[in-house]
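Final paragraph of the annual report: two paired records, presented back to back.
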Amino acid sequence: MSEHIIRTGHLPADEVCALLANARALIFPSLAEGFGMPIVDAMALGVPVITSKFHAAEEVAGNAALLVDPKNINEVAEGIVRLAEDDAFRMSLINKGKSRSEDFSWAKAASETWKIIIEALI
């Protein structure tokens, strides 16, 4: 499987986006995360996500990702195999992910902020 994994080191944002858009999946088994923006980025690009079922990653991903225990390598590996072999499941995560990513759009953030401002002024 190592021939299918690209280790890049640090990359500029535009190169990250191009690689991510062409990825078969984002494997993001973080042990601790403040927010997990790569999860949202992948979902917006139509890339299914495998991520940690702990901390912020679970909250960000919701039901739109395959959640795994990042300390359990077998669980992570099983998730990778499932995404590789189950096209219906993969497509389900892609569709849910695109929808979930909209919850974190700038347009939604601006709209929610504007509502709070208006409510505070009334």
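The closing record of the year follows.
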Amino acid sequence: MPLIPFSLIPSVSKDDSAYASKGRVVDTSNVRWYRADSASDYQLESISGWEKMFAQPLDGLCRGIFAYKDYVPTAVLALGTHKHLYVAYDYSLYDITPYRLVAVLTNPFGTVAGSGTVTVTHVGHGAAIGDTGVFVQPAAVGGASISGPFQVASISSDGNSYTIQLPAPALSTATGGGSVTANYQLPIGLPDSLAGLGYGIGGYGSGAYSSPSVLASLKARTWSLWNWGDRLVASPSGGAVYEFQPAFLSSQLVTNGTFSADTGWTKGAGWAISGGTAVHGAPYAAAISQAVTVTAGGFYRLAFDVTAYTAGTLQPSVGGSGVGSAVSAAGHYVTTFLAAAAGNLAFTADSAFAGSISNVSLTPEIAAYQIPNAPTANLGMFVTPENFLVLLGTTDASGKWTSMTVRTSDQASNTVWAPLATNQARDTILRGGSRLVAGRPIRGQSAIWSDTSLFTMTYTGDPAFVYAYKMVATDCGLIGPNAVTVLDGIPYWMTPTGRFLRYVGVIEPIECPFQEDIFTNLAPVQQEKIFASVLTFPGGVRIKWEIPDGRDGVECSRYAEYDPASGIWSTGPLARTAAVSAGALPLPVAVGPDGTVFWQEKGSYADGGPLSWSFKTAPMEIGNGDTLMAITRMIGDWKTLQGAATVTLYGRNWPADGDQVVGPLPITAGDLHTDFVMTARQVAVEFKGQGAPSKMRIGRIRFQVEDTGMTL
């Protein structure tokens, strides 16, 4: 009996009919095409596994991720969800969500015996249900401990208070808390886009894109993340630009802030240390100070108490620059600030000041801060190789916002935005589309995409223009702000019409054998969620898009993976909302819809559990297809087969016929052959495997067949 080789065309076909797809696979999961060298054939292998990076998941859906190394060098991984901004510094995770408000509250908490609901009184809090924050000082009220992160559960009808939930009920009904600092974080964004976006129902420029606030109210929150030297810059879609310095210094920079002894401070005239306080009396205008280790441009928190106050003013300063306003009343004071320069921490009393200070604390603030002077409503952001911070869909120098405005900071100075003859800060409006979507540095220049067009941005060095902008082409826009990635200076992206393109001086289309399947099944109005990344692994590099498929819901649930060296595609189900390549990190990293951050391409387990894989071919003709063939044996050949595996055959006599099924039959790498009986003109073959560990690479499998001579 003749042996027929099981040969496959290296492709995944989903857009053609089953008969037209013969010789190719039509359904895959956790497999990709592999070739050992240029003389070898492409074969299918299972992908590597993944492993949890942090014990706790992120809070929210991750829609932004970026990795780089600072000047130490230490790996910095930034992750933006629709609720929070995080940074992993040297593989420890921190919540660095910017603050919209820092407030000092007095006895704000109210508890009820037997209830975990706490009422927080704060007139003018400005929070919405679901917003988050942090109570800095721990407070004990009604037998309950209240501190750390919180989320607003409800808001009173008059807006003067809100409730939060504790993990355990209070023991008694009480009011209190003392002096409490509340850090209110950036308001949460949308987890999903809403139908008003206009994809397919009107133009981007009609209403929906008339203002950034309207945009933010309709779009799933995404993040633009980049590095500015060793610092992180971050901008949520429709929002301001924030900066974070990932240098985690000593938690306390003040020596003897409790004034427990008369040491550590330089006392000017009228100052004395006694009884746990530093006391000043008139008529001396003088300071009490000490040297502290701060970095110019760093973000810090200064806290102190003023007691026994009777008259005058007291001005805190660091490095000679005032911190907050002058104090002229007793109370607990908290100020977050950017250090203008290194130097001393000082409290300078005027000649009339009479009072005491105590409990002085100066700490690095583990939060991103808004960049001074930068526009506060932006659709996107990136940093050019020439060290300009670029904002897209923003306000120009006159304060007018348009969705097609490009604005650049001064070179190497992201706080200078007013265009002057003495700097290189500039703005311009591009023509070609109704909104700018994203920008990336590419080979020798930068690229900017609108919803319809591609522009290049080339540095001229001419103070009159600084950058030259050129429209490359139309009908090649970007479908979402994270749907583009760059490999070796070449950008790869997906358009709003579902095409895949790259730019190599000219725009080149990338043919995808399941392009129609992707675009037809995109979750409605969730295109903003599409996420592209470069995936590296031993033996290969791929361009990968995470896709929200409507057959699975509204989240990214499937992927499209392209090999730029061969032009071969792979696809399958794997739920990841954001991903970043290896480079600054030892392995690729991706985030699941539940916020779990994973090392990808690691080991042969699915986070310690069984890793599964499968692939199924289109029906293939046996012989010439004019007579029925009896298939009786499979002779396996596996480079690797680890874990349990099966083979199932689906026989047909006609292309539109129903399947006759044989299997699933167990197979192992050591099997000499697998026997069965099937009679058909066409046969599709499905292989499946699962194990902990699990790994597969197929070799040259053959089937034993015999022509029955029968026809139907």
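The longest helix spans residues 212-218. This concludes the annual technical report; the extension proposal builds directly on these records.
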